[in-house]
Amino acid sequence: MTFTPRTPRIVAARRLQRRRDRDQSRRFLAEGPQAVREALAAGAVTELFGTPAALQRYADLAAQAPEVSPVTDEALAALAETVHPQGLVAVCEQADVPIGEALAKKPRLVAVVAEIRDPGNAGTVLRTADAAGASAVIFAGDAVDPYNGKCVRASAGSLFHVDVVRAPLSVIDLLQDSGLQVLATSGTGEDDVDSLLDGGQLSAPTAWLFGSEAHGLPSDLIASADRRVRVPIYGGAESLNLAAAAAVCLYASARAQR
Question: Which of 2, 13, 97, 203 is the most interior residue, by most CB within 10 Å?
Answer without folding.
Answer: 13
